[in-house]
Amino acid sequence: MKRYLLIGFITLPILLVLMPAALVYLFAPSHDSAAQPAAAVQGQDKPAMAGTAPSLSIKVYRTEKKVVETLPLETYIAGVVAAEMPAEFELEALKAQAMAARTYIVRRLKQGKFDDVPAGGQVLDTVQHQVYMDEAQRRERWGDQYEWKSKRIEQAVQATAGVVLTYQGEPIDATFFSTSNGFTENSDEYWERPIPYLKSVASPWDIESPRYEETVVKSTAELEKELGVKLAQEASSSGAWYRIESRTTGNRVGKISIGGKEFSGREFREKLNLNSSSFSLELRGNQVFITTKGYGHGVGMSQWGANGMAKSGKTAEQIVKHFYQGISLQEYSQILRA
């Protein structure tokens, strides 16, 4: 009996010490959980929050299926980031894309205008708004890379959960595009609508993009048909067959005169279906060589620029504040409550 009492006196203190530690170990969240990345815990990219944001559902019109799917906000954002930016991009670039995508849909909800979507929907899943891919589409596209790409996208989304980009307390028009020509564009020089936070800024990192420079070849007959002009033979033979009338702040074509007509750089790009309004022309016989720099409209955040900034050590917050001038980061629940 004395032996058992002695053992009891020895083991009881040990158990009292070990049991709490064992319980903590068993019920603590996994250290490598994608849902709890370090940035989310430390709040590096998130503003100070008063509390947890309420749940929000998004009604997405699936164009191919012709149905409306209702999704939790962050599930929708993950599908947009997966569709709009390569999962191979740097994590901070993916976070920046997540904030831009979330801002886009929160802005739509705030405005409450859905007349460009079939009844019951709030947003399309195409480039008309922002592209969205569901899980099945991602599995099909990514194949055996699905697991790691999904975890990476999810990490970026959760690290910025609830955060939107605002200017003077309102969600911004968070436009983005693939690749710049080295500079983004002032909004009023492409869309003729001045927006204070959409200003031309340098983006030298874009030179790494595979779409940075491309050349397309058209016959003079194709060029005339697409532009609705007639090139004067004497002008084309002398070399004075077109003239750049002006350039934009972002070094794109502002105005161009050709075949007796004047076009804006945007009009010229859209009529010829060019990658960019940053272009040069060269006539060789009856062929026109058109070399473009950049890919997209050039206004807002350059995705390849964001990736280059992330590679250089910039955070997601630094990235979005570079491409969207004078903005702030806010919790979306504060916006929709206002």
TrEMBL record:
Residues 62-167 form the Sporulation stage II protein D amidase enhancer LytB N-terminal domain. It comes from the Bacteria. Coiled coil: none annotated. InterPro entries: Bact_Sporulation_Assoc, SpoIID/LytB, SpoIID/LytB_N, Spore_II_D_firmicutes. One of its GO terms (cellular component) is outer membrane-bounded periplasmic space. One of its GO terms (biological process) is sporulation resulting in formation of a cellular spore. PANTHER family: AMIDASE ENHANCER, N-ACETYLMURAMOYL-L-ALANINE AMIDASE-RELATED. This is Stage II sporulation protein D. The gene is spoIID.
